[in-house]
């Protein structure tokens, strides 16, 4: 349930302080210490799970509900017109803290935080093959 050495578990135990925003029986939300923009918050499950794959699926409802509550409040407090909810899973995806968490990032038009660029598949067959390759693994 809790990992002794995990940074976010230490925050959950109160061993490391945080700027708390919101808490339920299942979820804690606090400000990111190095925000992309002021108001950048983190929503974490109270159960220790290194990433999305180890999370109990039935915590999804609690997480979505907390993301809605926190996202709305961050939006209002910062004057943001949009919110990115981002989850990094794995080092190559930018995950530094191995306790599953969601970033709640306030956005405004022209803030320069452009998301990654998309590029089309080479052709329709390539896209169809990719869909099939994923589908057969589900
Ligand atoms: P990630 O790269 O998705 O693992 O994000 C981890 C986030 O945790 C980073 O944005 C850090 O700035 C943030 N962070 C690290 N230590 C703390 C802390 N003590 N309190 C709040 N946020 C933290
Ligand atoms: Zn943890």
Automatic annotation (TrEMBL):
Pfam families xrefs: HIT (PF01230)
GO molecular function: catalytic activity
Domain spans labelled HIT: 7-114
Residues forming the catalytic site: 101
PROSITE patterns on file: HIT_2
Motif Histidine triad motif, residue range(s) on this chain: 99-103
GO biological process: nucleotide metabolic process
Top-level lineage group: Bacteria
Transmembrane regions listed in the UniProt entry: none
Identification of the protein by name: HIT family protein
């Amino acid at each position: 349930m809790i990992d002794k050495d995990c940074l976010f578990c230490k925050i959950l135990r109160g061993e490391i302080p945080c700027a708390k925003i919101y808490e339920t029986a299942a979820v804690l939300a606090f400000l990111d210490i190095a925000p992309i923009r002021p108001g950048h918050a983190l929503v974490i499950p109270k159960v220790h799970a290194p990433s999305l794959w180890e999370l109990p699926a039935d915590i999804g409802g609690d997480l979505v509900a907390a993301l809605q509550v926190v996202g709305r409040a961050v939006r209002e407090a910062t004057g943001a017109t949009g919110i990115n909810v981002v989850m990094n899973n794995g080092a190559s995806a930018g995950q530094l803290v191995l306790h599953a968490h969601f970033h709640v990032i306030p956005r405004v038009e022209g803030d320069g935080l452009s998301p990654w660029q998309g590029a089309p598949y080479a052709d329709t067959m390539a896209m169809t093959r990719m869909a099939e390759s994923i589908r057969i693994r589900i």
